[in-house]
Fold these 2 entries.
Entry 1:
Amino acid sequence: MMAERRNGGKPRREEKNKTSGSVNERKRQTHSRKYDVTGGEKQIKTGSKGKNVQGKPRQAHSSQYKLNPNSKCPISHLCGGCQYVDMPYEQQLAEKQKYIDDLLSVFGPVDKIIGMENPYHYRNKVTAAFRRMKSGEIISGVYEEGTHNILPVENCYVEDEKAAAIIRTFAGLIKSFKLKIYNEDTGTGLIRHLQIRVGRKTGQIMVIIVTASPVFPSKKNLANALVTAHPEITTVVQNINMKDTSMVIGDRNQVIYGKGHIEDILCGKRFRISPGSFYQVNPEQTEVLYGKAIKYADLKKKETVIDAYCGIGTIGIAASDRAKKVIGVELNEAAVHDARVNVKMNKIQNVDIYSNDAGRFMVDVAEEGDSIDVVFMDPPRSGSTEEFMSSVITLGPKRVVYISCGPESLARDLKYMTKHGYQVIKMTPVDMFPLTRGVETVVLLTRAGTVHRG
């Protein structure tokens, strides 16, 4: 009945909820990577005449900077990506533990943070920007924090090493193929970015060439040259982004080589990753995070579960073996398609994916009198909205498992949830982003008065 009334068994397009959005839009990377160079003082020219970067004026054309010879990463003070790169890892964990304890212990007990065995080169998604120097040399690198000045990168302690090697090769091919790099001031040129996505367990690699125009001369020859240099590449895709935006990935894709997507294995399940799909950047720690979330859900194969804003279905599919029924809800049509492919690929019979706004969907479920035992929610860094949390409270699941990448917004949302009939039982921080200040936290909430066992 639920499927017939809401979806008719077919995908449908719903009007976007401007306060909620889809998982892909909420979590999509908005700029090129912030991350290591060696060498002496350099001067880099960039095109930045008065345009804005996310509402802030871009800095002037020239950026003269000094490298920090006392740091593992000489540009970490400029890039702003790895604030803890020179801090011993145990101290990083202690800093994050204290931060979470100070902020969240007022709501309930906080367990010990779970760190990584090897906290380096963990990112499975790497995005590069390019600049042509006066000498004709093509540099690839990261944006200086708060600007569009490019800092050249040779090695980065958080990026996948294969991805970094492919980026270096591509920079050379830009020059040999005489391709023009996109100029933000004039709106001319072709190559905007290069994004590499790596399936850490499958070894599959997707190369996404982001262009400012669908017209891409010699793209097949370029792809062949790239694959010849790096035969580990599984697919090469042209992504077309013609908008004046800081968003890296556009809406249109043209497959140049391979299938146009890759697959990876997470929590024992196989997932299809397309160019625009949201997929956690640290899969090793994601398995830890999801394992803890599923444990908190306390599933006994009798429960009906909602995976709100499910993206490509990772949490819900990972939990499906332990639940009676999993309902994934997602607004982004491309993500809905990938999620349904993932359900079919894993031969799962108890997961349904709906194309809908998750908050509205849960209100509909409550109005129909259907019972939901567990809701997984994984909002963006900015946190959830009162509208969404109100829909959770209206639905009244026995347990809510909240996965957060923004501790301050989590504190705000827990305050709301605990004022409206829920109590925090326990929390665990997980170090998803070593060398940075970032930390994820998984929280178990139950309806006030509910006795929790386990």
Note: The chain has two domains: 2-27+94-116+267-447, 42-85+122-266.
Entry 2:
Amino acid sequence: MKQHHFLAAAALALCAVSAQATDLMQAWQAARQHDPQAAVADAARAAGETRRAQAASLWRPNVALSGGAGRMSANSATSGAQFAAPGFGQSSGVSFDTSVNNGSSTRWSVTARQPLYNPERSAQRQQLEIGADSADLQWQAAQQDLMLVTTQRYFDMVLAERKLALLRQQQTAVDRAFTEAKDRFELGDAPITDTHEASARARGLQAQVLAAQSELELAQTILLDATGLSPDALQVMAPAGEVAPRDLPPLAQWLTLAQENNPLLRLQRANADAARQETRKHSALAAPTLDLVAQAGRERLSGSGDFGAASNTSRQQMIGLQLNVPLYTGGMRSAKLDEALRLEDKARAEVELASQQTRQQTRAAWLGLQTGQARLSALAEAVTASQARLGATRLGRQVGDRTTLDLLNAENDASAADLALLQARIEVLQNRLRLQALAGQLDEAQLLQVSALLQN
């Protein structure tokens, strides 16, 4: 409860920083409520939870009531019977005949059955319990995946906005250079090539701006569809400052956490357990079963027949043990068992494959974080150097030491360096969240820490 209060307070604090901006945490909370992927995960988890009740019901008694009514004819003939009654003595070789034609027939019975020993049911119960656990793991994996997808969509819009802004800034500079080159050519102070170079660059930038506008519109639409926010309320923020973690635990620690806690890897292990129980279930088809059975019933036939009015009533009550021993199934049991054994081998191989992929992905994310700080420092220095070069090139262009093409190239390089730094910061943050997800530790607290690194 304290953690939830802390998350709520921190989210409110972030909102107070910028009332207009939408931070990553707000985007996630909106996606959690609106994205169909979240609804699918919640429904699947709720459905999986019902398997626990199914598992428990396998060892509870089953009670059934059956009844029927209709018209019935019955005739019976008994000969060679012995008859004795008070006052009549004893007679042998007596015959009895009964007859009911189109009489009224009613019957009912109640049967209760309690399994006592049933290996197949034991395996089924284990499978259902594993299925419920698997549903929880699938939900956890879906939650983490939705966090990563929401983060990717958010940062895609951040990059698209920055790219468009830089292109427009560059376009303004190119238009200014084009006007200046044309004026200087008319004065005879610059060759016509400067005008052509500036014009060609301006047309190329115009095409890039149109493409960037489409890219931004698409990124915005995807994020709006996922969060349900209005376009006016969606103002994303970009990462700034130090985004790489200061103290990164060693790779061996992350690999251990991932092997123990990765939800998809744990899900594969659960599937392997279910496959083993399937093998056990088919092996148990040849095993005997023992049930406690209780039954009570009544049958009545009444009407008239060849000998006048007649009726027959029969009542049964029984309680005892019922033993079933399978003898021959036509080869189906052995065929099913062979299939289950092969599927068990497949499930074990899938666990090994998932373990290998998890190790590789964990190593890649960790290496991305380990080199992230050095990479960011280098790119920050590149931005500073490109801005210094741009300033020097502008000055050189004014005094005639640099051409218009030199200035345009400097403008382009400065914009590219700025965009590369932003992209590197985003990749570091994504690797940070990805590493947490691989270790099964990505939650709202981790997402909130990343959201705090964004600035409007």
Note: The first helix runs from residue 2 to 17.
